[in-house]
Amino acid sequence: MVVLACLAAAVAVTLAAQPGSAAGRGWTPPPDTIVRVTGNAQDGFGIHHYDGSALFPPTDSEAIAECNEYDTRVARVRCRVGVRVWYRDLADLKQALRLAHRS
Predict the structure, then answer these.
(1) What residues have CB less than 8 Å from 84, skipping those under 6 apart?
(2) What does the alpha-carbon distance between residue 44 and residue 57 come to, in Å, rounded to a whole number?
(3) Backbone phi and psi for residue 61, each to the nearest 5 degrees, phi listed first
(4) I need a surface site. Which of 9, 15, 18, 96 has the fewest CB within 10 A?
(5) E strands, 1-103, in order
(6) Residue 102 contacts by C-beta under 8 Å, 6 or more apart in sequence?
(7) Cα separation of 90 and 39, whole Å?
(8) Do residues 9 and 33 touch, judged by C-beta distance below 8 A?
């Protein structure tokens, strides 16, 4: 859900940056707005924000390895599912940003 909210904000920022938009009249997005996603789950993602900061979450294999450290099977499965969803959503966000920048 958080990734989808970030996606909506990122697309809004991209569309707002079009000529004649609010961005042209002095509006700037919040500093933590995601403006670019690079990489992939296997090699690692880079999440770049409007303020120039960036996050680099672990690769999917590193994240799954951390999930395997949980004590109970239910906790390990819950963690793995969360990792898969997180990286799937990052890939979707990357694609949406690419399409928004083209328009």
Answers:
(1) 60
(2) 7
(3) -70, -35
(4) 18
(5) 34-40, 44-49, 54-55
(6) none
(7) 10
(8) yes
pLDDT tens, 73-99? 999 999 999 999 999 999 999 999 999
Report the distance separating Cα 48 and Cα 45, nearest Å.
10
What is the token pair recorded at 5?
């909210």
Hey, what are 63's tokens? Answer: 């994240």
Residue whose C-alpha is closest to residue 4's, from 90, 99, 82: 90
Q: What are 55's two structure tokens?
A: 């996050």
**Regions of the chain with pLDDT less than 50:** 1-8, 10-22
Burial grade of 9 (CB within 10 A; 0-12, 13-18, 19 or more): middle
- pLDDT number for residue 101: 85
Q: Calculate the CA dihedral of residues 24, 27, 31, 36 and round it to 10 degrees.
A: -30
